[in-house]
């Protein structure tokens, strides 16, 4: 998905609101590592309008991991879903055709080994270190 206003697009958020409902995706007594969707994996793959430098600790947008906290931790991990390292393509509209092809190649290669990846720690330390 494209990152919109430091978040997922409204249509995707609406889908999550309608699908990840209490009783199916979570129960208030069973959240995070004890959540109802413990056997599931999630992977956020998205594009940004800004460069990787803009989404760094020193950048104007701040560290991209802080942007991911409410989406990966607050939604997916809350429901018990294990979260894989995100796949981010920074500012594809502002790079060369060759760089966009490299982005697609990297995504293709990642998909080939995706099921062998270990989930991230999904703790505050991972997001805010």
Automatic annotation (TrEMBL):
Flavodoxin-like fold domain ranges (all copies): 1-111
PANTHER family assigned to the protein according to its UniProt record, in alphabetical order: NAD P H OXIDOREDUCTASE-RELATED, RIBOSYLDIHYDRONICOTINAMIDE DEHYDROGENASE [QUINONE]
Family statement: Belongs to the NAD(P)H dehydrogenase (quinone) family.
One Pfam family this sequence matches: Flavodoxin_2
InterPro entries cross-referenced by the UniProt entry: Flavodoxin_fold, Flavoprotein-like_sf, NAD(P)H_dehydrogenase_qn
Name of the gene encoding the protein in the UniProt record: Nqo2
Annotated keywords: Oxidoreductase
Organism (species): Picathartes gymnocephalus
Domain of life: Eukaryota
GO cellular component: cytosol
GO molecular function, one term: NAD(P)H dehydrogenase (quinone) activity
Protein name from the UniProt record: NQO2 dehydrogenase
